[in-house]
Amino acid sequence: MLTKLPPPREKGVDIAAWLASLGLGEYAPAFRDNDIDFELLPKLTTEDLTALGIRSVGHRRKLLSAISALAENSSAQPGSTLSTREEFAQDATDDDVAAPRAERRQLTVMFVDLVGSTALSQRLDPEDMREVILSYQQAVSREIARYEGRVAKLMGDGVLAYFGWPRAHEDDAERAVRAGLAAATATGRLGGPGGVPLAARVGIATGLVVVGDLVGEGAAQEEAVVGDTPNLAARLQAVAEPDSIVVAEATQRLVAGLFTATDLGERDLKGFTAPVRCWRIVGETAAESRFEARHAVLTPLVGRHEELAFLAERWHRATSGQGQVLLLTGEAGIGKSRLLAALAAQVAAGPRSVLRYFCSAHYTNSALHPLISHLERAAGFVGDDNADTRFDKLATLLTGIGAEAGEALPLLATLLSIDASGRYRPPKLPAPALRARTLAALTRLVEASATNAPVLVLVEDAHWIDPTTAEWLEALVERLSDLPVLLVVTARPEFEPRWRALSCVDTLQLGRLEPCDGTAIMERVAGGKKLPRDIADRILANTEGVPLFVEELTKTVLDSDLLVEAGDRYLAIGPLPAIAIPSTLQDSLMARLDRLSPVKETAQIAACIGRVFRHRLLAAVSGAGRGRLDDALSQLEQAELLFRSGAAPEATYTFKHALVCDTAYQSLLRSRRQQIHAKIASALEAEFADVAETEPETVAQHYTIGGLVAEAASWWLKAGQRAMTKSANREAAAHFGKGLELVVTLPASEARLRKELSLWTAMGSALISTKGWGDPEVLHSFSKARELAERLGDKTQLFAAVRGESACRTISGHLRAANALANQCLTLGMELAHASGDSGYMLEAHHQLWGVNFYLGNYKTSGVHASQGMAIYDYEKHRHLAWGYTGHDPGVCCRSFSAQMLCICGKPDRGVQQSREAVALAERGSHPVSLAQAQMALSVVHLMRREPHDGRLWAEKAIAVCTEFAMPLLLGQARVFFGWALGGLGQLDEGIRQMRDGIAAIAATGADMGLAYYLCALARACGERGEASEGLALLEQAFDTLAKSGSSYQLPELLSAKGELLSRLDQGDDAIEGSFRQSLAAAREQGARLAELRAALRLARLWSDRGRESEARDLLAPAYAAFNEGFGTSDLVEAKSLLQKFSHHPAAQP
């Protein structure tokens, strides 16, 4: 319900005061000019209010409700009145009325001080001084009210005023400066003692404040403003000279271009630790419009070429004598004025006339202000022109355009208030007749201009047009059909003139720009430099194609400490925080909400839910009745702040602008936001199971901001777990991280430790995919989890932590520690499996053991555990394990490892078969990490078999998966296999580059697993390219890697590769033979039959070349005979060929 207000008919309270109490004081002149008295007030209709110039739907509704409430009060309590401020305040606290809430908002504060008041008070009688002070206060207050400021406090010789509260305007800083200039002038007109004029000094500051808390009691009650801004305004006033205005830098930025100002430099102000830069306002600039003031240099037109072509075509028609009228509409900042400037620039290039009329929010009730201003500019009036000069200039203007000066000159001189006594006879006409003839004369001026050349008439910002100018415009529209005139009227969407429906009128609505156009604007503002992609994307998302928003938000980012210049671009210097709403937009955005002040709180609550929100959720959180809520949403929808989809109560609403949503949200006090977010979270959990299930991070976020830490931590855990099931591991890690940040703030308890333990374990699993198993953060997560699990005696969680830590130590090359943990895992697994009947524990224990033994080079032991894993694994029962523990499917993993072991141990065909089974299983499970693992296993099996074409195919597939799902460790491995395959296909340069990059990427994750083998493959490729010495250096790194980790994984291959490289360098038979013999011994010890065959083959060739064919045959034959499959692979084909050669050419014994 609306606050019960003082009846306007009450003695001492007029309509202006009544409107001001509603926050609608700007309409007082319209009520006065149209003779709306107390008796007519209850009879006003919506149409009447529209005719009065009240175009805001919210304001019309507010007025009608207030009028209705007055009628009810009058009928219910005949004769009753509220005559005192105390009674009014008491009535306003009725239970049906929500108490005003304090808000965070940008506010411009003005402090006016009467110069020399102390000395004056010593010279004057107190009663005389009282009259001086009252006159001064009234004069200043009138000017403040004229620009719709709010007098916050009268302090004798000081006046404190707010611009932007309780209702914001898009130009509050400008209004404050205009009011300050007017207040100083008005004070100067007051006569002091002895006829000496009084003087005032003014300070103005703009900044973020908290405003709206009521302090004091009874008649002393006022709205308090908390923040530096009021103090700064008061200090700036002290800097000002008499009859001058000093503003802070923030205010100067907002009015730059509108007023000329002198930089006073930095001043030390009392109460402020840092010097404050101050500016003295000199006066208004000569700019014709706000757009011109803000854009002294026109920038290239972006994204409006089709619209400009449309306007140019209409201009072409006009030049042929077909009068054209175009209504150009679009929201604030969409680029209407910039488009007109481009059109005017085209038209002005020829013998044309351009007539421009600017409507202003400051003169919506000043009759014909746009036309008066145009005439003054066109005639060339300057400030110190006397009446005769002005009259002569006006006469010259009329003569120049061929107008009939006889009747027009006195009419227009009267309109311009030129008092040139004796130069003309003022029309002696009744007011209605004078008005009609003046409007006709103004229309004839346009017609006269069109007789000389085609005319472009621009009427800008018609949503602020005064009623008399609107009448002139309507008459002009009806006269243009046969004149060479193009009339373009710009307005915001709410402007609905009657003439819009005429057949001669076209309408063009400007839409939002495409993202590419927004990017072009950003780069222009940034001086041609590119912004970081994530920052550019954030700006585009927040500004949504509104050019002004793009410009101002880009400027805000460039002025921040977020970026540094680097050549042709900017680079971010850290994580991207939330981008603040530019101060240049805050007033404009807040004004949109304040126009609907009765329902603004609904918008604020909705903004806490998010830019998109459900009707049912808003109803649950707001506590408003269905009718009241629907009415509020309807008003927001009609004002185009919201878009609706569907019908209530299942409707979904979207804020039209992200920045409007942000403004509504940021205007709430943090304490109020916290209350609302807590309600939202509770409602989601209790009543919206679908959202809670599919978007647990939304619930978590609301609980977090709502200050309910324990609940928030639990929901962040749920959010991370759900993200992992979607393979969104980066998001999962972020969710777990937020949970951990919160949980440590809880009081120490077992419940807290358990929650923290769950989060650390889950964090480890998530980080495996995003950073790799060897990353220190992963190890830290599992180590922390193990510590907590041991402390709590929780064996289930201890199993997960030990399992994870063992995997990390395996990948990072700490194999002995990893093996000890793996065996502890097996012990725990047996105990847990026995107690719970869950075979998954044993499966994961074997999982860790086949991995660590594989990299230790214990292939047989690894094979045993892999076989047991395959025997246990059941897809339906165990596929969920892919999203837990170490983040991949154990069924896929055991087949992938088994495939490599089979190949190493002399079963290359079965290795391919087993690996293909792993791929098929991974594809069935749709788990990216498992799929990439399986694809890489198949790639390396083919590379072991020396089949580079197939190796390349599967490595490419793995690279695609790893890239899509951002898996750095696996991507590095896949690139090594890809480069290895390229080398095998003869593309050595690219192959070596890919392998080097892959190895570097692996090392960057902290991983050591398989690194020696990858270095071996790179060393062989270098040897193939004629860089055997480089290859040997790489092998030395590989041997060091194995020694540090205690591994013998693929040791026979490293030793064999060393022999190959030594032979390329012709290092002597003993060294070469020694390497191959070492390779043979290591291979036999490991049961690595493929490596044994390769070493035997190379040594047999060496001996054969030295005439030792018998020894060569005796060495190679048993190695070849150990195989019962894989006879189509290159190594076996070469071995068979060499053995056949030996059988045909028996060698002599040495």
UniProtKB/TrEMBL annotation:
One of its GO terms (molecular function) is ATP binding. One of its GO terms (cellular component) is cytoplasm. It comes from the Bacteria. The keyword Nucleotide-binding applies. GO terms for biological process: cyclic nucleotide biosynthetic process; intracellular signal transduction. Keywords: ATP-binding, Nucleotide-binding. This is Adenylate cyclase. The keyword ATP-binding applies. Residues 75-97 are annotated as: Disordered. Pfam families: AAA_16, Guanylate_cyc, SAM_1. Residues 108-237 form the Guanylate cyclase domain. Residues 14-73 form the SAM domain. The lineage of its organism: Bacteria, Pseudomonadati, Pseudomonadota, Alphaproteobacteria, Hyphomicrobiales.
